[in-house]
Amino acid sequence: MSASSFPASPRPRVIWLHKEVAVWSNVPMRETKRVILEAVLIAVVGVVVALSANAANPHGLALGTDYFAPLRAKAKSPPASAPAAITATQAATAPTVTAKTATDEAAEVKAILERLELHPIEHDEAVTLFRDPGYAQGLYLFIDARKDDEYQAGHVPGALQLYYYEEQRYAEVAVALARAAEKVVIYCNGGECDDSLLTADLLRGKYAVDPAKLFVYYAGYEHWYNAGLPIERGACDSGDIVEGAR
Amino acid sequence: MSALAPTRPVEPGLNGRLGRTGVPLLVARLLLGGMFVWMGLAKSGYPELALKKAGVWDRPTVKSVRTSGYVELGGPVDFLKLIREYQMFPDAAWGLLNFTAVAIPWIEVLCGLLLIFGVGVRGAAGLLFALLIVFTTMIVVRGLRIHHADAIPFCAVKFNCGCGAGDVLICRKIPENLALAALALFCLFSRATRLCLRKQIIPAAPTAPTTA
Q: Where are the alpha helices (DSSP H) in chain B?
C-alpha cells in the first residue's frame, strides 16, 4: 500500500497513518502538494471575502489611494539639519513605550513638520487662540483629525472633524470654514500620530487652503486633555463641555 | 470488525491512541481557530459596525470590554496604519500595503472558521503557520529596531503589533505566537479525521495498492 494519500477507508488507515507519521520526511510530495494547494485555495477565497467585505464596509479602504504619499514625498529631501537616517515615516511611527523624553519627541515632530513645510503651533499659542474672542467668530478654526469614536469621546470645544482617511465625509464644511478662517489649527492625538500632518497636507494640496494659515498643534489632544482644558463630548457644538483631567 | 483486520499499532506522539480519538486535534483546532477568528474580526471593523448598529457600542459593559486592553477593535484604516509601521514594503508598493491591510484579517477569520468546523484543516493550519512565522519575524525585527534605536531593553519594548489585542510587550507576544505556531503544526501533522466536517477540501488522489 502506498503511504502517499490520506486514508480513504478505515481498514488501511492504521498502516498509512503509521508510515506517514513515523517518518514525516518520507511523506510523498503528492500529499505536500495537496496541502499547499488547499492553503492557496483558502487564501484565494479569503482574499475574495476580504475584498467583498471591504467594498461593503462604509469605513473600508480605497485600495487605489496612496494614503501616505505626502509624508514620503517630502521625506525624500530632508534638510541638512535633520538626521538622514530618520525618515518622516520612521519618526512618526515611534513606539508606544520608549526611553525618549517628551522633549526629544517634540523635537522630532518639529523636524518632521519643518521637512513637510508645515507650521507647528505650541500648546500655549493654541490655548491663546482658543480663548481669543475671534475663535467664537470663526476667525480661528480648530480641526480634529481623529476618527469618529475619538472625536465623539471628546474634542476641543467647537473643533470640526476632518478625518483624513474618509475626508469626503467631512471636507465640504471643514474646507469652506478653513478657507474663511485666518488661522486653522489642526490636531490629532499627539505623540506619534501623523493624521494632523496628513490632514494639513490635504487642505494645502487638494483643497488649496493657504498654507500660511495652517498650523499643526503637534502636542495634540492628549496634551490638551491632560492640561485640564475644556473638552466637548459628542457632536460639534453639542454643548456637552467638561474639563479635561489634570 | 473482521478478525483479519490489522491491529492498531501503538504509536507514540500526536497520532498515538489519544491522538486518533480526534480530541487533541479538536482542542487545538478550537483554540487556534478561536484565536484567529477573534484576532481577524477585531481588525475587520465589522464588530464595531455591528455593535454600533445594535446601539450597544457605548453601553458600559461593551465599553469596559473594548477599553480593557485585551481587545482592540479597529477597522481597515487602523490596521493599515499599524502594518505600515513595520516598513515591510518599499514605498512604491503602497498598493500592496493597502491590499495586505484588507486581506489579512479576513484570511485569518476564514482559516479560523475552517479550523473550528474541521474543514480543510491541514491547508488552513499550514496557511496559519506560514502567517505566524512571517508575523513573528516582523515583530522581532521591529522589536530589535526599537531596542537599538531607543536603547531600551528588548523585553521592555511594547507596541501595538496589529494583532487585535492593543499594545503588547514583545517578550510576551513572541512566546504567544510560538505557541500558536506549535498548535498550527499540530493541526498540520495530526492525522485524525474524527470530529472534522470535511478534513480535506481537495481530496487526495486515489492510489493503487502496491502490495500483492
A: 17-20, 23-44, 46-53, 60-66, 76-84, 94-117, 121-150, 170-189
